[in-house]
Amino acid sequence: MTRIRRLELADPATVRILLPVYQSVVAEELPDDPEPTASELAHVLTPRAKRESAVFAAFHGDTAVGFAAVAHSRLINPPLAVGYLLVSPSHRRWGTGSELLRRTLNESAATGQDHVVFEAPDTSTVEAFAKATSGRRVFTDYRSLLELRPAGTEAPSPAGSSRAPYRTVRWTDRCPDQLLDSYATARAHILDAPSGDLSVPMHRPDAEEVRTDERILRQIALRQYVVAAVTPEEQVAGYVQLFAWDTFQGVQEHTVVVPDHRGRGLALKLRREATDWIRAHEPHLTRLQVMNDSANTWIHAVNDRLGWVRDRSWSGWEYSTS
Ligand SMILES: CC(C)(COP(=O)(O)OP(=O)(O)OC[C@H]1O[C@@H](n2cnc3c(N)ncnc32)[C@H](O)[C@@H]1OP(=O)(O)O)[C@@H](O)C(=O)NCCC(=O)NCCS
Q1: Tens of pLDDT, residue by residue, the chain (322 residues)
Q2: 108 assigned to some structural domain
Q3: Quick one: which of 44, 51, 48 has its CA closest to 67?
Q4: What is the CATH number of the domain that holds 250?
Q5: Are 198 and 97 in a shared domain?
Q6: Residues 120 and 175 in one domain
């Protein structure tokens, strides 16, 4: 019999209990990906600033065989929760996914969300499950990969070709104080990217939110690399953010150029510099992944120019909680 239990993220046992489930699902669905580590799972489960999360695990006896993790924000987008739902390949078609889904939708309704969106790689299994459970596809992302050669074994990236007097500033742990406000403002422009049928309200992060996110990244041992383009007036005109942890695959997270500064080659310049930097500092990395909405032609053009190769697609499946 399947038992669903809510787990507390603050309990260090949670990641330990769920890691074998996550590893078995990644091995099945993404066989060329590295085996996830505790740090990667903590990244998946831990909500960022101003967000709350809930984690539900399905147990057969004492063994966890599936989990659902969702996060929502009362401050930013109260009606929507987003997350993941997964069941170990050895325990599928036993109704576990449906039970986890039911429990998560009930709990999300109780905390005020109208809809929950689960993200998953596009597979016939996920599509069949979504069809059986009335999930609606609301966006599709493409994942692209960049194979990295060891630092120093290829020609250096061309020096910045952007046609304006930007200097670049790099940081890992903390954004420099003098750039904090304009970096927070620049971060709002990640929402300029298309997001399918999802309605995402405008949100302007403040300096405190940036600092809270930086603290969270340190807590979950996710190493951040940010390269920002800065104007002579000391304003952030764009930035690129990457993450690394202890597996061979790093993550290209945000690529943002503030509207007034677009069309000057900044995205290419920042992405090149950031890639060279992370490769030099994280020699165990052999590739990077990035997820971008399928309709984001601008970023796909940037990825193509930089040698990224499209790998597979992912979709967001929306469920109503009522
Ligand atoms: C989608 C998923 C959660 C389903 O879990 P599950 O416990 O097998 O789901 P259920 O047993 O509740 O299935 C409910 C219904 O969905 C449909 N369904 C599910 N899997 C199916 C499959 N492989 N083929 C056809 N129909 C399927 C069926 O109608 C099923 O009912 P039935 O078994 O009575 O015919 C599971 O396959 C999974 O974890 N997939 C990977 C998800 C993922 O990749 N997440 C991100 C990882 S990074």
Answers
A1: 889 999 999 898 999 999 999 999 999 999 999 999 999 999 999 999 999 999 999 999 999 999 999 999 988 899 999 999 999 999 999 999 999 999 999 999 999 999 999 999 999 999 999 999 999 999 999 999 999 987 666 655 554 455 568 999 999 999 999 999 999 999 999 988 988 888 777 788 899 999 999 999 999 999 999 999 999 999 999 999 999 999 999 999 999 999 999 999 999 999 999 999 999 999 999 999 999 999 999 999 999 999 999 999 999 999 999 9
A2: yes
A3: 44
A4: 3.40.630.30
A5: no
A6: no
User: How many Å lie between the centroid of ligand 1 and the Cα of residue 184?
Assistant: 40
Tell me, yes or no, whether 45 lies in a domain.
Answer: yes
Exposed/middle/buried for residue 283 (C-beta within 10 Å: 0-12, 13-18, 19+):
exposed
Q: Measuring from atom 23 of ligand 1, which residue has the nearest CA?
A: 125
Contact 151, 279 (CB under 8 A): yes
**Spacing, Cα 118 to ligand 1 middle (Å):** 13
Residue 68: domain span: 2-134
Ligand 1, pocket-test mutation among 22, 29, 92, 134, most atoms within 8 A of CB: 92
- The total number of structural domains that make up the chain: 2
Backbone angles phi, psi at 70, to 5 degrees: -130, 150
Q: Which amino acid, residue 13? A: A
Establish how many alpha carbons lie within 13 A of residue 291's alpha carbon, considering only the half-sphere containing its beta carbon.
Answer: 12
Q: Which atom of ligand 1 is nearest to the CA of 119?
A: 46
